[in-house]
Amino acid sequence: MEGLIKGLIDVALGDDDHADRNEDRQRDERSRSSWAEVVSGGQDEGRDGNHQRGHGHYQSAWRREDVSEPGRQQDEWETAGSRPSRRPQQAVNHGYETYGEGANRQTKWRKENEENMGSWETVGKKPHKQQHKMDHWNGYKRPASEQEYSSEVEIRGSIEPTEEELSDLSQACTKLWDLDLNRLVPGKDYEIDCGEGKKVYQKDDMAQGSLFSWLGDDVLRRPTFSRFCSLLDNYNPDQGCREDVTAEEKHEQAAFIEEISRTAPIKYLYRYLTAKGVVSQDYEEFKRLMTGMWFNLHGRGGTSGSSSAFEHVFVGEIKQRGKEEVSGFHNWLQFYLEEAKGKVDYQGYIFPRRRGQTPDSETQVLTIQFEWNGILKSVSSTLVGVSPEFEVALYTLCFFVGQEDNYVQLGPYHVNIKCYRLGERIGSVFPISE
Question: Which of 98, 127, 141, 307 is the most buried (most CB within 10 A)?
Answer without folding.
Answer: 307
